[in-house]
Amino acid sequence: MPSSESPALVPSPSGERDVRVDGIGVSTGASVGRVLRLDQRDIAAGLPPDVNADDPAVEIERLRQAFVRARNQVLALKQRVATELGRGHAYFFEAHLLMLDDPELVADVERVIRTRRVKAEWAVKAVLDRMLVVYESVKDDYLRERGSDIEDVARRVIRALAGRPGTSGLARLQHDVVVLANTLPPSTAAELDLSHVLGFATGDGGFTSHTAIIARSLGIPAVVGLSEVALRVTSGEPMVVDGTDGCVIVRPSKPVIRRYLRQHGLQRRLEEMDEPPERARTLDGHLCMLRANVEITAELDLVRRHGARGIGLYRTEFLFLNSQPSLPTEDEQTRVFEQVAEAGGKHGATIRTFDLGGDKLPIGRVESEQNPALGQRALRLALSTPDVFRSHVRAILRASARGNVRILLPMVTHVDELRAARAVIDSCMEELDTEGIPFDPRLAVGVMIEVPSAVLVADQLAAECDFFSIGTNDLIQYLLAVDRSNQRVAPMFAPLHPAVLRALEHVVRASEAAGIPSIVCGEMASNPVHATVLVGLGYDRFSMTPTAIRLIKRVISSLDRDLAASLAGEALRCRTAAEVDGLLARELPLRFPGFFKV
């Protein structure tokens, strides 16, 4: 974690103070620092003024040499990232290397040079611009964000053609900074001296962007999707980055700076404390279990480092997305899942089957869908592609021989889907048993509660599964019909909306009646206020970003469960999210002064 000791912060004499700009929080926590604004120049900014080429043969030779130089630069960056951040993060550059090694891409650029008789720089831009148009038309967030890789490669090749160095001075920062940019390409993020980065704030990007993934693994607060108001801040001005609330504070006043520095200081002290106890315990002695959400294998070390009791959610999506253009084999999946099982230790690891749409998997021609969020995705897609699903399930089962593994099924909407999935799991168990391949026959199978129908039939699902995992991010979006990545409606994304609270209460009561555990694995689990309400509703199992675990342990150790239950009961009687917010703002400091202060 970077130090919070920044140069003295004072409000900017120009411009309005304390301007809150909402975005999308992609890495929790808050920090205050001076802005380092990175103006990522447009690809065209590096182009020579003259377009036409006198000798296409000369331009083609320049192009080939530039591709070689660019490839060497990416290899050096990949090695640096693997050394400093872990090999799991270095895979970001595989896509760049694939493009730079693609003979068809080089041939396309050469063809433009010959037919249009233009300089190599202009030919590179023409070909890669054509590729960008395709990516920008894709509805899927992950694939659309991969368009930044194309832009990154184009800039690198054009710089190499101009004879410019492949790296900048960003690796030698002298002071702690908040990085502000409209777009932050992966290679630029990799060049940064991350020990001096207090926060990220960008206009582009989403939860699956390279910057978001790096920020979460390092515990650096990050907010993306910011408007032009925030992006106009100049280098040297102070800014608050609040990844928990999903906002930045532009030109904060002294009182706001002091408040956030106190919060940031608290987080630093929590990070520097000795290894915390394995379990969080309320003041009245009730034990809670805090597990870690993990995106990629590079984050597995964070499970132990932050004192998590195993892995509450391992997302398998990146394993599939990073194997493109082919599917990962059963053996490849098994090797990854074995690492996850071992990292989970005695407390185990929950592996969620792939939560992807058909447009993200190379499984043949997939028709585009007007609304992918309500389309053929997650368990629906898995059940419709039995060969892919069986290989996936077999890999998880094989990994269960190496540790305590649980299977989690995403986007279950009714009991028939659960029964169909369990039939596949049982069939795979029979196969492995016949083949003499070891696995855990008692492996638990859980259901993800993230759509309204699953809430309403929670009692039926609870009777046929081993545990619930509540994905609050999607559940809130589906309940409130709010896409939190859409800036026009993002402010309506309200975790404390009465409908959300009632749904959460209904689910936990259904699980209690059936005698199965419920674990909250969405972002509500890592928010101190939300976690307090969840404890009051009866939840005692949470899974979250590893860097939030120490903070939530501190919160839980300050709570009396009966008082939290009384407060949650009052919140359930509120009619609006604003009423709930007002109730908690008023009562939390009075009832739990050990953590919440006025």
Mean pLDDT: 83
Taking pLDDT < 50 over at least 5 consecutive residues as the criterion, the unreliable ranges are: 1-8
Full CATH superfamily name of the largest domain: Phosphoenolpyruvate-binding domains
Instruction: State the name of the first-level CATH class of the largest domain.
Output: Alpha Beta
Percentage of residues assigned to helices: 40-55%
Domain unit count: 3
Largest sheet: 9 strands, mixed
Total helical elements: 25
- What is the general shape? globular
Rg, Å, rounded: 25 Å
Number of strands: 17
Can you tell me the CATH architecture of the largest domain? Answer: Alpha-Beta Barrel
Structural class: alpha/beta
Using the coordinates shown, work out and report the CATH topology of the largest domain.
Answer: TIM Barrel
Q: What does this protein look like?
A:
By secondary structure, this protein is α/β, with parallel strands linked by helices. The chain has three domains: 19-34 and 175-269, Phosphohistidine domain (Glucose Oxidase, domain 1, 3-Layer(bba) Sandwich), CATH 3.50.30; 49-161, PtsI, HPr-binding domain (Enzyme I, Chain A, domain 2, Orthogonal Bundle), CATH 1.10.274; 282-519, Alpha-Beta Barrel (TIM Barrel), CATH 3.20.20. 46% of the residues lie in helices and 13% in strands. It has 25 helices and 17 strands. Strands 9, 10, 11, 12, 13, 14, 15, 16 and 17 form a nine-stranded mixed sheet that branches. An eight-stranded mixed sheet has the order 1-8-7-3-4-5-6-2. α1 crosses α7. The radius of gyration is 25 Å and the shape is globular. It starts with 18 loop residues before the first strand and ends in a 7-residue tail after the last helix.
